[in-house]
Amino acid sequence: MKLIVGLGNPGKEYEHTRHNMGYDVLDVFLKKHDLVLNKEAFKGKYLKTRIFDEDVIFLKPLTYMNLSGECVIEFFNYFKIDLEDLLIIYDDMDLPAGKIRLREQGSSGGQKGMQNIIDLLHTDEINRIRIGIGKANKDVIDYVLTKPSQEDLSLISLAQNKASDAIECFIKYDFLKAKAKYF
Predict the structure, then answer these.
(1) Which of 38, 58, 107, 118 is the most buried (most CB within 10 A)?
(2) Is residue 73 predicted with pLDDT exceeding 80?
């Protein structure tokens, strides 16, 4: 079983902000496949389904970003997910707007939600898709909690679609194949 997690903050005021890239990428994938998150448990909204002959859980933690690991660890342990079957999607200020990067390990790069997951799982060997949101030219918190400019939004939209395709490849094959194809 695979666990695919989009990071973000719950609530209307955070919808489509830079910090909600994980939520937005998950939405792109789910819409493309006519799927809807329809259950809540362990501080998260999720869908457990079968797609491409694989059992998959799609998850949005309903904790705020900095506590994302609390939700992820509950699902990870309850459903007995293997580490190689976990995929986390989140925003990254170190990447230009519209770029994506797939990595199977490494630091959080200062992303607090990812850091919380690393801390609670006691490993940084976690598959991830990072969505570039560009560097903050103002206060970091204000920057990540605002919506991208129209120019960045068109680049980010392309990246979200590419990340959605990478999720599909991860489900059908594995993370290394997705990384090789979408790096």
Answers:
(1) 58
(2) yes
Residue 2 in 3-state DSSP? Answer: strand
* pLDDT tens-place string over residues 90-146: 999 999 999 999 999 999 988 999 999 999 999 999 999 999 998 877 788 888 898
Q: What is the rounded end-to-end Cα distance, in angstroms, of the chain?
A: 23
Q: Does the CA dihedral 91-69-27-51 come out positive or negative?
A: positive
131, 29 Cβ separation under 8 angstroms: no
Give the residue-averaged pLDDT of 67-92.
Answer: 97
Identify the three-state secondary structure at position 77: helix
pLDDT tens-digit readout, 33-51: 999 999 999 999 999 999 9
**What is the rounded CA–CA span in Å between residue 112 and residue 163?**
21
How far, in Å, CA of 82 to CA of 80, rounded? 6
Structural domain total, the chain: 1
Work out the percent of the chain whose per-residue pLDDT is above 70: 100
| CATH code assigned at 131 | 3.40.50.1470
- Residue range(s) defining the domain that contains residue 93: 2-182
Tell me if residue 16 is catalytic: no
Question: Which of 16, 19, 33, 122 is an active site residue?
Answer: 19
Instruction: Please compute, for residue 177, the number of CA atoms within 13 A of its CA located in the half-sphere on the CB side.
Output: 9
